[in-house]
Amino acid sequence: MNYLTLIMAIPLVGAALIATLPQAKSLLAKQFALGTTLIAAVATILMTVKFERGNTDLQFVESYDWIKAFGIKYAVGVDGIALVLILMTALLTPIVVLAGWNESDNGRWSTKTFYILILVLQTMSFGVFAATDVFLFYVFFEAMLVPVYFLIGGYGSGERTAAAVKFLLYSLFGGLLMLASIIALYVLSGEQGGHTFNIAALSKLEMSSTTQNFLFLGFFIAFAIKAPLFPFHTWLPDAAKSATPGTSVLLLGVLDKVGTFGMIRYCLALFPEATKTFTPLIITLSVISIVYGAFLAIGAKDIKRLIAYTSISHFGFITLGIFAMTTQGHSGATLYMFNHGFSTAALFLVAGWMISRRGSSTIADFGGLQRVTPVMAWSFFIAGMSSLALPGLSSFVSEFLVLVGTFTRYPVAAVIATFGIVLAALYILIPVQRSLHGPTTPGNENLADLNLREKIAIAPVIAVIVFLGFYPAPALNIINPAAAHVLSQIGFTDPAPTHGGK
Amino acid sequence: MLVNNGLVYLIALPLFGAALLLLSGRRADRWGHLLATALSGMSFILGAVQFYQMLGRSPENRAVSQKLFSWISVGSFNIDAGLLVDQLSICFVLLITGVGTLIHIYSIAYMDHDKDRRRFFAYLNFFIAAMLLLVMGDSYLNLYVGWEGVGLASYLLIGFWNHKPAYATASKKAFIANRVGDMGLSFAIMIAFATMGTVSFSGVKEAAEGTSQGALTAIGIMLLLAATGKSAQFPLQAWLGDAMAGPTPVSALIHAATMVTAGVYLITRSNFIFDAAPTAQLLVVIVGAITLLFGAIIGTAKDDIKKALAASTMSQIGYMVLATGLGPVGYAFAIMHLLTHGFFKAGMFLGAGSVMHGTGDEVNMRKFGGIRHFMPITFATFGLGYLAILGVPPFAGFYSKDKIIETAFYAGGIKGILIGSVALFGAALTAFYMSRVMILTFAGTPRYDINHPPHESSFLMLLPMGILAIGSVASGFLLARGEALVHWLEPLFEAHEGHGKEILPPVVISLMALAVVIIGAAIAWFKYGRGTVADTAPTDVSIFTRIARRDLLQDDFNESVFMRPGQALTRLLVKTDDVVVDGTVRGVAAAALASGSSLRSTQTGFVRSYAALIVIGAVVLIAAIWAVTL
Amino acid sequence: MNPTNYLYISALLFTIGAIGVVVRRNAIVVFMCIELMLNAANLSFVTFARINGNLDGQVVAFFTMVVAACEVVVGLAIIVTIYRSRRSASVDDASLLKR
Amino acid sequence: MPESVLFWIMGPLAVVAAVGMLLVKKAVHSALLLAWVMVTLAFFYIAQGALFLGIVQVVVYTGAVMMLFLFILMLVGVDAADSLTETIRGLRPIAITAAIGFGGLMVSLISRATLGREPVGLDAANAAGNVQGLAQLLFSTYVWPFEVVSALLITAALGAMVLAHRQREVARPSQRDLSEQRFRSGSLATAAGLPGPGVFARHNAVDVPALLPDGSAAPASISETLRTRGDMIDSSEFQLDQVNTEVREEK
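^ inputs. structure came back:
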């Protein structure tokens, strides 16, 4: 069997096995889930090793008829961009399972159900990155919502139902617009030589600029909601606050990447002309997202909301990199997606442990944790440093690439975005100071430090953050050819050095 | 250029130490500080070996480099993790590892009672590694890594006792001020890449010739912004005083000798940009001159010995920045002053630390007095440093500071006279506030409980102080003898034609400098040396004194111009997000709910009415079909 | 004879059945009216089978009968259950759809 | 021609019966009328060459399904005679207008629709016999729906059993319980049991209420089912108008 189908099948098989377990054996379900995700991770790593770096074609391609009458195929394949995102998903899921070992205990449904949902979500995530048939992509895109909806609504905290519904409605709204665009593409393809949902074929369609603009917007708004970009972001803080930390990691780390991934794979590839039309608008929105998200993060009083807002800021960077249309911007944005997955995972997992120990997610309730729980405090600090893109940690490489890549084409946007790094220092250091530093405040004296399981969960995340900070080449070698290929396909070249006009 | 694959060990050793000490936890408590000191010492030895080998080569072949691996490579943006040690870097390498090792030794004793001593040494080692990377990186981006690395180290060390809220705030303030500067460095790198297509030092140097004045000026100003952040120059100077919250060895190493001079290194390293961008260069001079006076004025009003020294550091770095702004003639003197300052200021900080150690962590000078009787060795080393900073011949400061004042006067025209005078006035102020520190601390009558007199520090603390004192005495002479440093650095800079116009003979300027120093010291003596000094600061003082005590309102300015509006903006945006952005969404939801509940009344719950509706629906449907097919 | 006449009568019966569903309140009578509508449809199927000259229409009518049988069985069981708990076979009393 | 005759006689009768279904008060009568319509349809089927369906119609529908209806009517109670007055305001005119509109539209549609050819007739298709022809189709083309429908039938049967089955939540009251219950109820009037029906020495049928001492009928003396169904014979005729209290003179 092909690798892609294999890695998509593994979690499903795991989920089926867990479903057969007796309800009472929740520990066994957890172990099964961990084992399954680890196997999937190993398979994905093998696939990454087999991937031909220099080759810009889609690899591990598979195509079978699914619904013949409409020319819908089960067609999958990956380029470098999709590959790193699949790899990220595969690596993050076992960490999430291990880190959130007890997350499912207070849920509305059983532990079994929780892990089945997680595993199904993993399959969907693989599928959404691997699909090369627009319809298949759409199916995965929407189907992903279902497990997340139940994960938030069934296992979250606080106003979890409301948050879950908000998340679902937002996403469905975007998905609906995208569906309209997809159908329009299908109809157009029928007029121009045969109905198809194949991306490669669709990208060759002839369209009037008005049509292109409308269809582009259909896709883009769906992705902007998912990503999320200002002003479509308000579902994220609510969802992240209500979800369990593990779910939040998958939500921000994996699910939201579908948005930015979709922009590259669909918006750019299918509508190059419309992309050019809308680039100024999108760059503006990205810059607003960066600064706006950062300010809201500074003003956030709840630690989970804070992390959600920092992500809005980071997604602004990613979108900025994508629409800067330079190789640095593109590679940087893709690398940023990968890195953001890990730095947010670290932040959310540690924050989750802090919250579960303290029983509160309000920043003001913490204080002086550095003295009480040094390992946890350090983990949070390193994750925070990664979030503010400290050189030597992975986010720096990607953030700087985005900024440099943007500057060569849109200097003003890059300059405003760079202010984000000062704001980043504020939104990380303020919670660090309030929760980790200062005297140990009442209620925090007896918090337990990380146990072995938690240390094992967080160690690989931090290792990846540090390793890719110093040596990003393994990731960049996969991303670069694909990013360059995308740009050349839609006809952009990097601006040459100007020598300041001399 | 020569390749030497051993350079990386200079950085790797302390970095390894930091990682090991942090990861091994309490297990390393017993030997951690020793290992850290040893690793720092080994780095120094490696640096010395490099220096020795360098001496043996001809001036053009002295630089050595090492390429580790390709760090970031995307399109035309290619950054190698490469190291470069040339005549300029090696000065810093020796200063960092040398002073660094001494301060490691000092800290063994100073931090003896702290249960987190291991962590402290880990941070120190990390700082050494980051600072070495800063001066050894071969491109602006590599430098940037070290640049932020030292910022992080500084943050960690200032906040070492972060369980005290004020200290935690101080560390945050330092980091954020530094970040503002870092932003400047980011801009500079981005502009360099956009205009020249490269960010390595050698590449930019070559490309600078073909680049327009405007771009170079922009890069220069952004580099200056970076320098003001890291070196606590105007307008980003406010963090340095608060940074004294860190343990005193940290103040000596980071906030006196090494990290804060990184800005001077950056400007000197980028000489090819500033030489081609006179506007930027002029700004450098202005920033240097303002800071010079700014720091000196603050220094006159501070009662906290460490803050007084911090203000002095700010002022002295102002001298260095001023010198770098004077073009090729000034670079060497800036570096010279940097090196001598590294010795005497570190020595004085360690002396201050020794005094604090002896008096039970007292920092208020008004609570000292007559300490020379109890701590003679500290008094001696501090005194030598004092003479050096005043610029009394033949101590180190005389050679370096005099040259800067001289060069300033020779800058030409009104500008020369103006900045020369500023530098000269700065020297007088320096003499005044340093004498004040000296008198309040060591002279006069004791103003503390005489039953618990201060005690002299242990040998481990006195040894580094002694060595640094020797440096304060001798380094100036050694560096200036036969213009040794000037010739050493010469290959790096554009050739220049001697001095500017000599409006006054050098001897006259030296005498003038000496005269103002004596006047400054004398005023201090008359004010503080003769009578008794109140052990609390007098409150009925002039408005100027009060402003100076408030750090020339720098914090008030930052607070009212940046912090409060920023907080207001944050609150406004949070409100906006909730009411406007999310409010719109919620409004749509509420509208849907309202329309739903109004439509609900049509649902009577009677099956038969539903059936009737179905019939009506069918009629409409069939009618529609009928109408269409008609 | 023209088979269309059967279609007319089928339409008439169907309409009568529909009226019955709406106006009668006894659940069992409503059910019988539904059966009437189904039978009317069946008559159309059989007629179409004849018009088209194949037996497919009859097969569908056959299936309809089976489905109708199923429906009657389940429906009557529901009526019995409701009657048991509410002591009434009036569809108006079972306006549970609203609450 | 026999078909036309059949149609024109049976068709109007069926329509009249269907309309009657709507108008009669008692559900039982509706059921009977419906049975008549179904039988008519069976005739029509057979007339149209659907012999098998015609038989099935009689056997399954008129036989089994209608029996089921009657059975349920019996279970639910024969009191199920609606009042025909409408309770939901305005529903009836709307429904009737809509339904007539529906019917009118259907009829006009049918009359407008043209096939463009003569009806084919089933002679060819029924050449091998109607039952054989149907079997041919059912077990070849429609075998899958056939299986599915059979599954549906089984499910429906099971479903009906589940729905109709009543779980007893309390133990069936014993005679003793019932007796105690009677005694503890508010009045002791029925403590000794309800009065038996019939008028002593005049009429002892179950549908005649007993007479109370004052000569009026006692409704409680006859079965409730008979009472609600209205099958209660007026017992006044058996009443002695005036008891001759006059003592005749002995001769």
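The beta strands of chain B are 2-3, 64-74, 77-85. Chain B touches chain A through 61 residues (CB under 8 Å).
thumbs up if we can close this ticket
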